[in-house]
Hints:
CATH class of the largest domain: Alpha Beta
Order of helices and strands: HEEHHHHEHHEHEEH
Number of domains: 3
Protein name: PpiC domain-containing protein
GO molecular function, one term: peptidyl-prolyl cis-trans isomerase activity
Distance between the termini: 63 Å
Helix content: 40-55%
Strand order of the largest sheet: 4-3-6-5
CATH topology of the largest domain: Chitinase A, domain 3
InterPro entries: PPIase_PpiC
Mean pLDDT: 85
CATH architecture of the largest domain: Roll
Largest sheet: 4 strands, antiparallel
Radius of gyration: 27 Å
Strand content: 5-15%
Domain PpiC: 110-227
Amino acid sequence: MTMYKTAGTALFSLLMLVNCNKTNKNVEVLARVGSSVLTKDEVISRAPEYQMADVENQVAQWVNAELLYLAGVRSGFNKDVAIVSQVKDYQKKLIGQTYLEMALQYRVGVSTEEIKEFYTVQKETFKRRHGEALVNTFNVDNKKDANKIRVFLEKGAGNKKRDELFEQYGVNAINVEEDRLQPVINKAIFGGTKSNYIGPISSGEGYVVIEVIKRFPKGSYRSLDAVYDHIYLVIQKRKAAILSASIIDSLRQEYLFELNVGIL
């Protein structure tokens, strides 16, 4: 009971703080610790498509970090030589990495032809070692809701209530591998019957309803479309590593530096 009361008090305080802390510039303050404030704009800039639960989590983490920081300063850790040195090292790495990312941003391109060539040469690496299936999975607390979900799934695409279910439960299609699931679910998806609508199946903590969009047998190849983004990132990463080395070499020519590792 105390836990719920504390959580409710914290949320009420947060809402009151938003309502009472609006400056002339309409800056909404979500939290305040000492002289530090966290505004609504700052939270939104970090996660534009946020949910209320995410906001509460971010605010709680920010408050905890600020409280610990103030306690650390009070204890004099902000003047600790080792900590100050670590902060400077981190700052240098962050600034340098940001510069490198900006320098690479418009200089590392990957063409469609490069992706197709990579796929052709490396096609064996895209062979499925296990059977796979593309599925929609719904997890609910009771069998009654699970039965309702199955009924609406079986009505097929274009049904309004069916579409609402995906939004309500936050379901997106995922790829699952054979023999990597609970035995009862694995058998239902990859067994002999191969129905496209499975469940309700008891999961121990509730019930599962599964819609199988497509099955892929062992030994089949993933399509180029399915691995396109993966190949893009692999090629981009390789090019970035080569170009990064080139950028560092050019900076060696631009700035004076000295190495004396031989004296160690």
